[in-house]
Design goal:
By secondary structure, the chain is of the alpha/beta class. Helices cover about 40% and strands about 25% of the residues. Helix 4 (about 95-105) crosses helix 5 (about 140-155). It is globular, with a radius of gyration of 17 Å.
């Protein structure tokens, strides 16, 4: 059995489209508190995504012994160095989303998409992918119109965009897997599930 330790609509849609059998359970993790503690330990953006994905999977694994539990997380960094740049969190409200989009406008940032599988409390597989995202210069009028059209969905996304939706209009260049950008390094995961016999080879 595969258990997704997330209620993310995007990740559920990716697994369903790929015909991966799974059920989804909320990990019940206080992400803000966990991030604060892990950042205090000096974790960079890549390591933070990996640690949060593992934490979510661990929380659910305790409830479903014998299941392969998939935890996922995504972080965004901007500035000097792909991992060591300034990290940007999900917007806390509409005004914060506008601030974030202005900060990302005309610049390149990196998304770090992590997945960890845990079986009976032990990590047995992990993978982190990075995507390089170059956002075109955005006018204030465009930011307002964009958030008017997609706020109810993009508010839950780091960077305030869904690449599979109107968020595609924010970018001039994207380098990396579309799946990873949506929050799940899907192809490496599928490879692992074939090796485990969960999916047919």
């Amino acid at each position: 059995m595969i258990v997704l330790a997330s209620q993310s609509a995007s990740r559920r849609a990716l697994l369903s489209a790929a015909q991966v059998p799974f059920e989804a359970l909320s990990p019940g993790v206080d992400e803000d508190a966990a991030k604060e503690a892990l950042r205090a330990d000096g974790l960079d953006a890549r390591a933070l995504a990996d640690a949060l994905a593992e934490l979510k999977a661990l929380k659910v694994s305790r409830r479903v012994p014998g299941a392969l539990v998939l935890g996922c997380d995504q972080t965004l960094s901007i500035g000097d160095g792909a991992e060591r740049g300034e990290m940007i969190d999900k917007a806390i409200d509409r005004a914060d989303a506008e601030r974030i989009l202005r900060q990302l406008s005309g610049r390149t940032h990196h998304l770090h998409s992590a997945a960890v599988i845990i079986l009976n409390g032990e990590p047995i597989w992990r993978h982190v992918e990075r995507a390089r995202m170059t956002m075109r210069p955005l006018s204030d009028a465009f930011i307002t119109a964009y958030l008017d059209s997609d706020w109810d969905k993009c508010r839950w996304c780091v960077g305030c965009y869904r690449i599979e939706g109107p968020g595609a209009q924010l970018f001039s260049r994207v380098e990396g897997s579309q799946f990873a950008i949506q929050g799940l390094p899907l192809l490496p995961l599928l490879d692992f599930l074939r090796v485990r016999g969960v999916l047919k080879a």
